[in-house]
Design a protein that fits this description.
It is globular and about 80 Å long. By secondary structure, it is an all-alpha fold. It has 17 helices and 2 strands. The protein has a two-stranded antiparallel ribbon with strand order 1-2. Helix 5 (about 110-135) runs antiparallel to helix 11 and helix 12 (about 270-285) packs across helix 13 (about 290-310).
Amino acid sequence: MRRKAGRLILIEVGVVVAIALILILIMPVVLSEFRLNLLGRFLSLAIVALAIDLIWGYTGLLSLGHGIFFGLGGYAIAMYLKLQVPPGELPDFMGLYGVTELPWFWKPFYSFPIAAVSVVLIPGVLAGLLGYLVFRNRIKGVYFSILTQAAIIVFFNFFNGQQQFFNGTNGLIDFTTLFGATVSDPKTKFIFYTLTVIFLAATYGLCRWLTSGRFGKLLIAIRDDESRVRFSGYDPTEYKTLVFAVSGAIAGIAGAFYTLQSGSVSPRAMDIAFSIEMVIWVAVGGRATLIGAIVGTLLVNYARAFLSEQFAEIWLFFQGALFLIVVTVLPDGLVGWLRQQKIPFIKPPQEISTYPSLEEDPEVQHERQNFGN
């Protein structure tokens, strides 16, 4: 059994590496510079979709506020890029609002290592802190979703209103150089694209590792029956806080790569509609499948790009129709549906027995027979 499992892992690793090599070596030859940049942005969004799948698909916590962590990661790297100016000068937009001295919270972002760590640390710590305050009070279900939506409104209004510090609605734009290279240069953009592919593969591997072992089974147990997990001696608060923090950190990385490739970050990254779109990507691809999150993200965003070019005024109706069709006809998403069709080489859905020993306990069976449960 272990040998078979090990062989399957090697096959999956080989497939992931092969797809990554195709994206890095072949797609730049096939696609134009504009389309390659578009693909890079969508792959960045696929990283945050993995974060949503981790917290929603496997743990059962529907977050409608992941745009917070996505935006914070984007702002962290954007602040470093905006400080690539001659010594003594300020980012261009600050002069428009009368700022004469660099704010203290901008100064650490002169350092690239601090900016890179902040991309992961700030969203991760914020998610962990928010998660701990929420989960210790046993807030879950629709109340958790509403709370995350309320949180994103706060952050959106904060960044939108701080024009002198973050350029308000316009956000941080017009990046010039990074390590001496011009940000808008095609070669620099290809490096951003390549790094995005590598980090997407690494994030997929991390999420697969987290959800395949004992930790993943515990997350699924929390999703399916949290009360029983608590009665078994585990503290769901710790596990939910940890996975929410990891999910927030992953979303921060996605935001940084999206900012590098789009050349800007604004409060729109923390818009409610954008966070709901993230959930739609995962729902279309298939919850708790990981690969479904990536497929759903690419499919929905390419469909949106195509439809917005062909039907600029009504493409949103197509997106809404696609979501309704998937939710009503394919509740497990596209990947979930493919798995149910028993197609060769496609892994069937895995049945997970959360507490087999409890189900087989004679006393439990006796109680069920007598009490009809």
